[in-house]
Amino acid sequence: MNYTKFSKRNNFVRPSEIREILKVTERPEIISFAGGLPAPELFPVNELKNVCTEVLTKCGEASLQYSTTEGYIPLREAICKRMEKLSIKTSLDNIIVTTGSQQALDLSGKVFIDECDTIICESPTYLAAISAFKTYLPNFKEIPMDEEGMIMEDLEKALKDNPNAKFIYTIPDFQNPTGRTMSLERRKKLVEIANKFDIVIIEDNPYGAIRFAGEDLPPVKHFDTEGRVIYLSTFSKIFAPGLRLGWICADKSIIQKYIPFKQSADLHTDIFAQMITAKYMEMYDIEEHIQKIKEVYRHRRELMIQCIEKYFPKDIKHTLPDGGLFIWIQLPSNMDASDIFTKAIKNNVAFVAGESFFPNANFKNSFRLNYSNMPDDRIIEGIKRLGEVLKK
Amino acid sequence: MNYTKFSKRNNFVRPSEIREILKVTERPEIISFAGGLPAPELFPVNELKNVCTEVLTKCGEASLQYSTTEGYIPLREAICKRMEKLSIKTSLDNIIVTTGSQQALDLSGKVFIDECDTIICESPTYLAAISAFKTYLPNFKEIPMDEEGMIMEDLEKALKDNPNAKFIYTIPDFQNPTGRTMSLERRKKLVEIANKFDIVIIEDNPYGAIRFAGEDLPPVKHFDTEGRVIYLSTFSKIFAPGLRLGWICADKSIIQKYIPFKQSADLHTDIFAQMITAKYMEMYDIEEHIQKIKEVYRHRRELMIQCIEKYFPKDIKHTLPDGGLFIWIQLPSNMDASDIFTKAIKNNVAFVAGESFFPNANFKNSFRLNYSNMPDDRIIEGIKRLGEVLKK
C-alpha cells in the first residue's frame, strides 16, 4: 500500500537527527559525545529494589490501577517542596505530573499553538522542543543569544513585530545545547518584557538542579508576579530518565488548560513510576544523590574543557557551562559541522552538528558535546581524536 | 492574569464528563458503575515484587536510562507472539510501544488529521478517542450500529459522501461503550470497503483478549491484505493499567509515520514498566492470569444482567456482551439519561450518560454500565437502586 492521506504536519516533523545519529553511535568502537544521557552508574539501583517492594507491599493494587490525570498527590507534594526550595511558592493546584518534560512541551504546543502562530525561542534551542512545537505548525522567531542568554533588545523588537506571538520558550539554566545560563538581570528583564507584551513564558528547566560551579540563580518563575511563567522540569536528570517523569508548575488557570490535553494524550502518567519516585524521596535523601551527580559532572566537564583547550585548534571557541550536561563548540564561519561529523565518524568519535538546534536551520558552524555519560579515558581519547579531525 | 492567547482546540477539548463524574463517585457511599476500571484484586502484586527485583538485579542501569522510541525489544517480541496467536503475522518493524493505547489514539490524530478533515467512527464510540481526535479539529461522521456492529451500507454511503475521509475508527470486540461485537461477515466487508475507497482502518482492540462467551473472532487486521489496518491494543485490561503500556501494530510504512510523533510526544515509554512487563511474561503465564480475569468478569456480567432483568422496567433494553467491561442501556426515546443520572446520584448509584459517547452529542436516551470493578453485593444493590430510579 502506498497511502498518501497523512496530515500536513508529517512534512515538518521527521525522525530527529539525533535519533539517527544515536543509531550510528551505538557501535561500540565509537566514542559518542552525541546523546544527552545521564551517567547510569549513579542511578540508585539497589535503593529502588527496596522501594519497589515497599510500594507493592503497602499499596500494590493502587500502584497498578488507573489513576488521576493530575498525578499522584504525594509526588506532587514532594514537587511543591522542591519548588519552594527554588523560592517559588506553590500548591497542589499548580502542579501536574507529565510523562517526562518532553510531554510538557507537546502539551504546551496543544494548549497554545494554532497553525501559523509565531512562537519565540532562543537561537539555538532544544532540538526536541522544536519537533514538539512543529507538530502544531507554528513559525519560529529565533532570538540571538550571548554569554548571558537571550538578548533582550532583540526579544523586545521581535514582540513588537509579532504582537500575537503565543509564548516565549527559554531554557535559562545551562541551556541545551549551549550550556549558557541567563544572567540575573536578564531574568528580571524577561519577565518585565513579558508583562509589557502580555505573553506567557515557558521556562524549561531540566538542568537547574545540576549546578556545579558559580552561584545559584532564582528561576525566571521566581520573578513572576502575574502567573504568566509556566515552569517545566523533570526527574530525568536528578533521578532516572527511564521512568519518564516530569512536571509543569503554573498558575491554576493555566494548569486547568493543560489537564484535558494531558488526559487525551495518555490519561495519566505511569502511577507505579510516580509512587516509587515519591517513596524513594521518602526513604532516601535525593539531595545527597544530586550532590554525587554534581561532583561527577563537574569533574567530567573540567576534564573535557582541559582536553578541548589542549587538542582543539585555537580559533575554535567553546562555552564554559556552570552546570548541566553540554558544551557548545563554535567553529570559524567558513566551516560546516556536518562535514566535520562525517570525518569524525570515520575517526570513531561523534557529536551533534549544531544545525538541528536552529528551528529555521540556518547556522552550520557549531556543534554540541555531552560530557555526562563518559568515563575519563574516553573523554580524553575522544576529544583528542576530534582535535585531529578539526586540525585537518 | 486573564490570559486569552490559547489555541482554538481549547474550545473543543474539555475535561471529560467521566473525569468529573469519577470525582463525584469517589464518595464511598456511592456505588459507581461509571468508570472502566479492571478488578484490582486480580493484579499480580506479589509476582511483581519478584519481577522488579529481578529486573533491577539483571539490568538495573538500563531499566532507568533513556531508551529507544519504538520500545523495548523483548517486549515487542512478546507482543509479536500475542499478535501471532490472533492470526496476525508480524515482525518487530510492525510494532511500536505506546504510553497506554490512549497515546496511540493521540498519535493517530497527529499522523492523519488536518483541521476540518472528516474521520469516520461508530455511533456511539469511545469517549476518550473522541477527545484525542478532537485535539486535531476534525469533523466526525458517525455510522449507526446494530447488534452486529457498524452498518456497512451506511459506512459505504459515508465514504461516497466523504471521499477524502482520513480513517475509519472501530472497536470491533465488546465495544466501549456498547459491549457489542462486530460479526465475522462485517469484518470482512469492512476491509473490502476500505480497500475500495483506499482508506485506513484504525482497529482499537483493548478488550479482545477478555472474551468469556461465544466464539473467538479474528481481528479486523487478520483480513487486511494491503497493510491498511492499524491495530491498537494494551496491557491495561490483561495486566495493569497503571503502568500505561499499549502498542500499535501496523504496516512498516505506517509505523515509520508514527515514530517521529511518538518521539516528540514523550521520547519513549517508561522503560522500567516495559521491562517488568516483559519479565513478568517470561517468569509467569499471562494466559493463566487472563483466564482468571475472564472468569471473574463472566460472573459479574451474568450477575449484572440478571439484576437488570429483575429490577429494571421492561421497556428498557440492554446489550449482552460476550466479553469486555461494559453493558449499554437503551432507554425509551422520551427519556434523558442526564436526568436519570441526577436522580441516581441522590440514590447513591452512578453510571455514565450516553451523550458523551456520541461525538456530535445528539442522543440522550442511553447510558453505560461497568461490571468489572465491583463485588457481587454492590452489583446487586446498585442495580436495585438504579431500578428504583428508573421506575419512577
Automatic annotation (TrEMBL), chains A, B:
Q: Which Pfam families match?
A: Aminotran_1_2 (PF00155)
Q: Which domain of life is it from?
A: Bacteria
Q: What is its EC number?
A: 2.6.1.39
Q: Name one GO biological process term.
A: alpha-amino acid metabolic process
The GO terms this record gives for MF are: 2-aminoadipate transaminase activity; pyridoxal phosphate binding
Q: Which cofactor does it need?
A: pyridoxal 5'-phosphate
How it assembles, according to the record, is: Homodimer.
Ordered alphabetically, the record's keywords are: Aminotransferase, Pyridoxal phosphate, Transferase
Q: Which residues form the Aminotransferase class I/classII large domain?
A: 61-386
The record, for CDD domains, names:
AAT_like
* Gene that this polypeptide is encoded by: lysN_3
What's the family? Belongs to the class-I pyridoxal-phosphate-dependent aminotransferase family.
Q: What is this protein called?
A: 2-aminoadipate transaminase
Give the first-level EC class, as a single word: transferase
Q: Which InterPro entries match?
A: Aminotransferase_I/II_large, Class-I_PLP-dep_aminotransf, PyrdxlP-dep_Trfase, PyrdxlP-dep_Trfase_major, PyrdxlP-dep_Trfase_small
